[in-house]
Design a protein that fits this description.
Helix content is about 75%, strand content about 0%. By secondary structure, it is mostly helical.
């Protein structure tokens, strides 16, 4: 088995165990046994449980980043890309936190750890927003004075909506289909467009 596959196996095993038992209750020995890899192999890749925890978060964020990258490269209008990036981000964050069960509590309890690991993801997402905004400006769809600032604003606005979205506190009872025209109108005005959907 290649180095990459062995590491992926260990990370996925740790993710499942953290999700089932929680971070505190999972031991390096549990991960070693469940993965079918020896402790020596586990310690070759990860120096301690925190190290593999960070690798789990990085792995989840990489998955999200790949999906957002797909959206940014779709053959659709720039304004549709911005909307899809927003909704894809929120949906995937919720899906990730939900699918990780007990790890969800750790995710929120150790948010400062998550923020440290998430720096690359955040940078990449701001860059995707920037690219889409530049595309929109070049095609004369958007009227934006400062693309860098607008990319930051979009990124941090969506990031700030994560927790209320995950817990269902964002417009309770309002479906995505119902919210989309409202969000589209807000995005269009923010980007200097006339709302047209």
């Amino acid at each position: 088995m290649s180095i990459t596959k062995t590491r992926q196996t260990l990370v996925e095993t740790a993710r499942r165990l953290f999700a089932q038992k929680g971070f505190e209750a999972t031991t390096m020995n549990d991960i070693s046994q469940e993965s079918g890899k020896g402790r020596r192999t586990l310690y070759t890749y990860f120096k301690n449980k925190e190290d593999i925890y960070y690798a789990v978060i990085e792995s989840e964020l990489e998955r999200l980043s790949e999906r957002l990258d797909e959206v940014a490269h779709m053959d659709i209008s720039p304004e549709q890309k911005v909307l899809r990036l927003i909704y894809t981000h929120l949906r995937l964050i919720k899906e990730t936190v939900t699918r990780n069960g007990t790890l969800r509590a750790e995710f929120f309890r150790n948010i400062w750890k998550v923020e440290q690991v998430r720096k690359t993801f955040d940078h990449d997402e701001r860059e995707l927003f920037r690219q889409v905004l530049v595309e929109g400006c070049r095609s004369a769809k958007f009227r934006i004075d400062n693309v860098e600032l607008m990319a930051d604003i979009l990124h941090y606005s969506v990031k700030g909506l994560e927790v209320p979205y995950i817990y269902g506190r964002l417009a309770p009872g309002l479906s995505e289909a119902d919210s989309r025209p409202i969000v589209a109108s807000l995005v269009c005005r923010t980007l200097g467009m006339k709302p047209n959907y």
